[in-house]
Design brief:
The chain is 30% helix and 36% strand. It is of the alpha+beta class. It has one domain: Aminopeptidase (3-Layer(aba) Sandwich), CATH 3.40.630.
Length: 143
């Protein structure tokens, strides 16, 4: 049974970092110094479980302007296409509404733009390169 939640323990946080290492560093070739950054300490982290195994993660930076920046959304390879990406994004949005954010922004890898469009995010930038991967900025109003 899948479920998503806010990270509450150091073990959940470390599992989230492990998934990010597997997906972003090992699978996509992003340099380690770019994957972990200074925002990990101040961001709110989320994980999704399959039973008792953490298999997906995301984080949100809350900006003073009532905007949340969604980052580091990833699902373990063997769990892609199962609905976990939607599940964790719904948990992120639930949290964003609870803390009264007005808008969520993210930089989506271009291949993932259709996924975010299904969740009602809109592209707000032309394609650009980040860590050697094409991206687009996307936004969603929470009003």
């Amino acid at each position: 049974m899948f479920r998503a939640k806010l990270v509450e323990t150091e073990a959940e946080r470390e599992a989230a970092f492990a998934i990010r290492r597997d997906v972003f560093i090992k699978e996509q070739g992003i340099p380690p110094h770019l994957e972990r950054d200074e925002f990990d300490e101040s961001s709110t982290h989320f994980v999704a479980y399959d039973g008792d195994k953490i298999v997906a993660t995301a984080r949100v930076q809350v900006l003073p302007s009532d905007i949340g920046i969604v980052e580091r959304v990833c699902v373990m390879k063997e769990y892609r296409g199962t609905g976990l990406g939607v599940l964790i994004m719904k948990e992120v949005e639930k949290y964003a509404k609870q803390v009264e954010l007005k808008r969520l922004k993210l930089t989506a890898q271009s291949f993932a733009v259709p996924f975010y469009e299904k969740l009602h995010y809109e592209s707000t930038s032309p394609e650009f390169m980040d860590s050697g991967i094409p991206h687009r900025v996307m936004e969603k109003s929470l009003k």
